[in-house]
Amino acid sequence: MMNTGTLYKDFQQRFKLFASKRPDLVENTLSNIFTMRLIGNKTHGDMAEIGIAEFIHQFMYDFDSRHVGKDLFRAKEHEEDIVITNELTKEEIPVSLKAYGDGPLQLSTDKDAKMFPKLCEYGDAITDREVIKDIFKSEAFQPLDSVNVMPLIYREKKGECNIMVFDFDKMKRQTSKILLVDKGYKYDEELRQIVPGKGRTHPIYMFIDKEGKYICEVRYGGAAANALQRGFWTHTQNAFTYFDSLTNGWISYEHNLTLVQLFRLALNSTENGHKSANIILQTDIDNLKQKTR
In whole angstroms, what is the distance from residue 27 CA to residue 25 CA? Predict the structure, then answer.
């Protein structure tokens, strides 16, 4: 049996192929998901979980997917929001869905706060490639081998979105140095060194490639840090070359105001009404499916 990382990469390639053949379906679902921002700034994240799971279930014939559910999710060891099943092999792939604006992106919460203390053992500047390889093999960084993240990234002002998957393997191959950026400091890519800078309230360790470019970072994981100040992060704009686009680039999306009205009515109608609506919606999806065969 292949590990989940290999299985997830296979799924990614299948998704990219599907998106290249039917970009209209991907655009339709993502438009509906990001329309949820009209209801609430965080609503689209929850809707992305059930929407993408259903997209895979309805349209990707060799795969199925189910939403894990928040209560079950909180009790689980991993960070998945959905589980994708390869219908041919019956192997399962746990995947974490992220719906973020184009910018900072959390890839792992590092809930046991092991990564930052591990890096502290090696000082402020880690430049030996063999040491860096050992760090990635350490217990503290082992969870990254099983982190399958599917980020749905949006540029709201431009009406653009992209499903961008971070390439952990490339990150490990290309990391040339790991530098401590303490509070009150920042990394200058032109100078390729740490310089005084405002804004940072917690220290981070920044991963840099041989060209001096930013790849990712491990944020401070102590007791004083909140969810946004800890864990394994990257930046979609600054580390764009370390992502693979499953949508084959940025795609335009439009808000679906009719969907908002549908939610208004659904929340005030009965289950019998929902059953009738489900029949109509499934018929519409079945018509879309006919075009995929």
Answer: 5
